[in-house]
Amino acid sequence: MAIGRAGAVNAALLAAAMSTMDSVLNVLSTISVVNIYKELINPRASDRRCLVIAKVLTVAWGGVVIGLAFSMINIQSILETVNSVTGVLVGPIVGIFVSGMFFRRTNWQGALIGLLLAFPPVLHLKFGTTMTFTLYGTSGLACSVLFRYVASLFFPPPDPQRTEGLIWKWRGL
């Protein structure tokens, strides 16, 4: 490819990457300001104050993203890395939804405890064993459902009127 064309292609690729990253940083800072700062920390914050906080958070989130990028320098396979991270994070979260679909005894305390207790075993599978990355998600789901069920027994059950119609019922094929 000619020198001028190669430069134009590189410039176009960098512009596309910058456009994507600035959108991601904008979304992260906006969500942080609206859902965390404005809801939990200072509900009566002025728009000017929220704008300053959003700008600071954009820089902070940029630092987090750069740090994550540097941590990915030595990865061998992008497919394995993405599936490992997804399996470790998504398996326990999906366990909450599965519990809500199949068990009437599910309550928010049990769901939260089950989610938090499901991460250590899955992280042990990832870093302490040679198990294939494809099993992290199902292991996290199983741990989450099991821990959630046991933890829900220690708290009062949800009101049956509030859960009516929310539990999936097997009607056969």
Descriptive key words:
173 residues, mainly alpha
List the helices and strands and how they pair.
Elements: H1 3-41, H2 47-71, H3 78-102, H4 108-128, H5 136-152, H6 160-163
Helix fraction, binned, reads: over 70%
Query: Helical segment tally?
Result: 6
Order of helices and strands: HHHHHH
Largest sheet: none
Q: Residue-averaged pLDDT, rounded?
A: 85
Shape: flat
Q: From the helix content, strand content and strand pairing, which structural class follows?
A: mainly alpha
- Low-pLDDT parts are none
- The value of Rg in angstroms is 22 Å
Question: What proportion of the residues form beta strands (DSSP E)?
Answer: under 5%
Cα distance spanning the termini:
59 Å
Number of distinct beta strands: 0
Tell me what the structure shows:
With 173 residues, the protein is mainly alpha-helical. It is 76% helix and 0% strand. It has six helices and no strands. It has helices at 3-41, 47-71, 78-102, 108-128, 136-152, 160-163. Helix 3 (78-102) runs antiparallel to helix 4 (108-128) and helix 3 (78-102) runs parallel beside helix 5. The termini are far apart.
